[in-house]
Amino acid sequence: MISKELSTTLGFAVREAKKRRHEYVCIEHLLYAILYNNSGKEIIESCGGSVENLNNVLEDFLSKNLETIPEGDEYVLQQTVGFQRVIQRAVNHARSAEKSEVSVSDMLASMFQEKDSYAVYFLNREGIVRFDVLNYISHDITNFPFRDRGGGLAKTEKEEKKKSSDFLEVFTIDLVKRASEGKIDPLIGRKLELERTIQVLCRRNKNNPVYVGDPGVGKTAMAEGLANKIYAGDVPDVLKDICIYSLDLGAILAGTKFRGDFEQRLKGVLSELKDKKHAILFIDEIHTVVGAGATSGGSMDASNILKPVLAA
Predict the structure, then answer these.
(1) Considering the entire predicted model, what is its pTM?
(2) Sign of CA dihedral 248, 47, 135, 130
(3) Handedness of CA 188, 189, 191, 194 (dihedral sign)
(4) Do 174 and 245 meet the contact criterion of CB atoms below 8 Å apart?
(5) Poorest-confidence range of 178-182, 220-224, 276-280?
(6) Which CATH architecture has domain 166-311?
(7) Helix (H) or strand (E) run with residue 102 in it
(8) Which of 40, 132, 183, 205 is most exposed, with the fewest beta carbons within 10 Å of its own?
(9) Rounded-to-integer distance, Cα 123 and Cα 277, Å
(10) What local confidence, expressed as pLDDT, does residue 269 receive?
(11) In 3D, which of 38, 241, 280, 46 has the Cα closest to residue 143?
């Protein structure tokens, strides 16, 4: 049996296709409808995605990429084969979980098996994968404990600004801001190393410097010294107005109880960094990222999550 909430969402998708005079109702219409459902919106945000970004790309896709039936022409709206498969999989998923009703979450999880669809491409681009959705369904795991879980699609500018800065505020330290507050001591005797760091950061590619040395030689102090130079404006133009965020790996690991908690928090930090035009992520004790957050028998850890970002 389909839940009342899902029935409303399916109806929304069909009405949207009719309103736009599309010949077929497809998976993208369904995902668009899910964005206007409170449960669907909550799942997407909890898995690290941006409802606003998805809404914008889907609006653009539905407006430009689907053929429109001319006004006045009679036609009968059809379902795509992919749309039918998603519904059937959602029903099977609910049955296998011994659920009495098929919910929006079942539909969203089933959508990921249509790997060649634009809907899945848009979800993956937001960093959302099927595992995240299943994890949420199983344990109600959210990306972030303080994330707003109410309201509709529309948010005020103030609420959006607050939401977008949560991960960085909690799990990182802005070193340039600390330098502006006079909380960082001057760096002495590391002029050549600091100049080399700036050279590497100014590269177009392979611009990720790594400090290697024994404990206590001043690797963290190098990052703080760079923050002081940026605050003083004593850097090339390309590095001016840059923020250096020092990642607190311990804070990300603290309180993670379920499989996937750590990955979702780290993805949240990386996602928000992508929205920053001028940002550097400094990972202190970087050797600890190998194996951090990994579970027994699993290969996914912090280093694997960071690989795509470092390669970009």
Answers:
(1) 0.50
(2) negative
(3) negative
(4) yes
(5) 276-280
(6) 3-Layer(aba) Sandwich (3.40)
(7) none
(8) 205
(9) 22
(10) 86
(11) 46
